[in-house]
Design a protein that fits this description.
The protein is an alpha/beta fold and 225 residues long. It has one domain: 3-Layer(aba) Sandwich (Rossmann fold). The strands form two sheets. The chain has a six-stranded mixed β-sheet with strand order 1-2-8-7-6-4. A two-stranded antiparallel ribbon has the order 3-5. β7 and β8 form a beta hairpin. α3 packs across α4. The longest helix has 28 residues. The two termini are 20 Å apart.
């Protein structure tokens, strides 16, 4: 489920196809999402530059949240990235809200004890792309997997099948210029050094791709159908 064209499955697309999934891309606000979100074997909810709480401006968010709520109640395999993770938290009854600080850049995760025994162990010590200003409370029954200095809730799991990631492991470094252009206004407002951000992503992109592939493979192998 995609919210903006350039924040797509990235490196995860070929991996999912290689794992035997027939990948279909659905665009929020354009396609009818309720049935696919509830019934698909696996759903990946991707990022976007809007807030979960902006339902009056973007009414389709209410439909997404309701469909996700039903899917998550049934424990069906679901992966959320950035806005996707926030939508999952909201669908599980947790509060989603502006965090007060933009977290845009390249940096490692601080894994919890539970995170160290999860698929996120494949990302231990690996810098990832952070790009958000909103955050969420940990949903009831969920386990926190990772934090950063700015935000306590960077990842959570609910059983084996539900994984929410505030960061972007799917990033394709070779296509990062699309992100820089697409988010030009936000980057300027946040005072981000674009040249520096571009350089660190180019330098670390291959390592992230390999680590993220291991992480995703580990999660997929342990799904319960």
């Amino acid at each position: 489920m995609r919210h903006v064209a350039f924040e797509d499955l990235g490196s995860f697309g070929p991996l999912l196809e290689g794992a035997g999934f027939d990948v279909s891309v659905m665009d929020a606000g354009v396609d009818e999402l309720a049935e696919p979100v509830v019934r698909s074997d696996l759903v990946v909810i991707l990022g976007g530059p809007i807030g979960v709480y902006e339902e009056e401006r973007y009414p389709f968010l209410s439909d997404e949240r309701r469909a996700l709520s039903q899917r998550l109640r049934e424990g069906r395999p679901t992966l959320g990235i950035c806005l996707g993770a926030q939508l999952m938290a909201a669908a599980l009854g947790a509060r989603v809200y502006p965090g007060g600080h933009k977290e845009i850049g390249w940096g490692p995760l601080q894994l919890t004890a539970v995170g160290e025994s999860s698929c996120l162990a494949k990302l231990a010590g690996q810098p990832v792309l952070h790009w958000h200003g909103d955050t969420f409370d940990l949903p009831d029954g969920a386990e926190r997997l990772a934090s950063t200095a700015l935000y306590e809730n960077q990842a959570f799991a609910l059983g084996q099948n539900v994984l929410a990631l505030q960061f972007h492991p799917e990033l394709e470094a070779r296509r990062f210029e699309q992100w820089l252009v697409g988010h030009a206004v936000e980057l300027a407002a946040a005072g981000i050094d674009i040249a520096q951000l571009r350089a660190v992503v180019r330098q670390g992109g291959a390592a992230l791709r390999a680590a993220a592939a291991s992480m995703l493979g580990h999660w997929l192998e342990r799904l319960r159908w």
